[in-house]
Specification:
- With about 375 residues, the protein is an alpha+beta fold.
- It is built from five helices and 14 strands.
- The strands form two sheets. Strands 1, 3, 8, 11, 12, 13 and 14 form a seven-stranded mixed sheet that branches. Strands 2, 4, 5, 6, 7, 9 and 10 form a seven-stranded antiparallel sheet that branches.
- Strand 11 and strand 12 form a beta hairpin.
Length: about 375
Amino acid sequence: APSTPNNFISKLKAYDAHSSIADEFRVRTKNGALLSILTITSILYFVYLECKFNLFETVVEDRVHVNATVPTGLPVEFSVTFPNLACALIATDATDPAGQLQSLHLDRSHHVFKVRMKDGRGISSPKRHATGGTMLDEASFEDHAEVRVERNLQKMDGSFDDDYCGSCYGAEDNDNECCNTCDDVKRAYKRKQWHLNVEGVEQCKNEVLIAEEKDEGCRIYGRISLSTGGGNFHFAPSHELESMGHESQLTVFDYMRFTFEDFDVTHTIDYLHFGEKGKFFPNQVHQLDGETRKIEDGHGMYQYYIQVVPTLYKYLDGSRVETFQFSVTEHLRHVAPGQGRGLPGVFFFYEVSALHVEFEERRKGW
């Protein structure tokens, strides 16, 4: 007769080397119960540890290698507050290691704004700041100041060079019309019934009441894209600066002295980040965020030396973030009129490292 499932099971039971003991022969004790509970608990605990170690805990492995490719650009997001420096006095620009300007104003990715500050709070809406126009040494400052002195003298006596013909910025009625004063430009625009923004008019620069900004501060923030070849970006005296209410002092030395007095580089770095906006990896450190530096013993040029390291972070799910880390050292150089050591300002010198750091998330086990 063919074998049935019951016959197969019976034959299988014949190989049982650990046959159960009948209940009537079992002796149940308290110690045995405690040992059984301890055994089951231990098994469950060790199973939990193994699962946690192999399935749930994530470790981050790091490695460093030479960067085979060079990033196409170095995005920088920053916000720096100068509590004792008027917005009219300060400009932003960047140079390469050879001292040549990086032409930030030609890049559409640059969005820099100024906000006038008073007692730690903003008192104006953000104003778009055209980067460029900084003065970095006394020679360039003296050249600019000489032109400014000559213009102020011409304004005082109403005279101009014989061949001087100021632009009317498109509002002239004919090619021979000149607008030598701010009033001439305003009159030409009024005749055309056009709106005039005097901030971009050469003849009206002295009409801007920069003295109103005295005792104010300035916050400059935004995003710029720098060259990966190194260089610096900085906050320095602007070509558009005025003598902050000292217009009667018309000598070059007075302009320089008032600039040094008014250009207080005490500052707070609200934030300074390298890389695309919002692309951070877990526990990334930004060393300069919230840092304040006060200049109390004279005029200063504050210098930060930054080593930027390209960084790649790989998440467990396969996604990745390409960003930058940096290390920084700093130095305060004391400067004074006539020393030839430069003008007051805040400089961020940077260099992109040839090394590349990678972080990768992994499971500990299997």
